[in-house]
Amino acid sequence: QVQFVESGGGLVQLGGSLTVSCLASGFTFSDSRMSWYRQAPGKERELVAYISAFGDILYYPDSVKGRFFISRDNSKNTLHLQMNSLKPEDTAVYYCNALIVTGHSYRPAYPGWGQGTQVTVSS
After folding, report:
1. What is the reported pLDDT for 93?
2. What count of other Cβ atoms lies within 10 Å of the Cβ of residue 72?
3. How far apart are CA 15 and CA 23, in angstroms?
4. CA dist., res. 77 & res. 70, Å (int)
């Protein structure tokens, strides 16, 4: 079955950096567009980055553009998110999933999520 195992979260100070990773299984990772989402307490889950199957197309919302960088290793079914210049508002649980993009809309490809990895930015 499809599984996502996120790791690498932790406590970091304002302005610091952190890289989180996701090991995916149960589907053809190398053929899939992949994404990172995050969910802060009391807020909806939001997309923070996605990457095309071959890594040639990247997307970031304005809230993280220039600070977050998504990458993938298709040989290891692994997705990464490097986060720089972290702010308290980046505090959230970070999740990965494959992504379906249709025109200007997108949605997670699979209904199940991993346990996520907690990122906490202290001020």
Report:
1. 98
2. 22
3. 27
4. 14
> Which tens digits make up the pLDDT trace of 29-55?
999 999 999 999 999 999 999 999 999
Compute the average pLDDT of residues 81-109: 96
CB atoms within 10 A of CB 96: 29
Joined tokens for residue 50: 């996605």
Q: For residue 24, how many other CB atoms are within 10 A of its CB?
A: 24
With contact defined as beta carbons under 8 Å apart, do 79 and 72 qualify?
yes
CA angle 18–92–36, rounded 5-degree value: 70
Tokens of 13: 């100070």
Do the bridges between strand 10-13 and strand 117-122 make them parallel or antiparallel, or are there none, so unpaired?
A: parallel
Mean pLDDT within 92-97: 98
CB 45 within 8 A of CB 38: yes
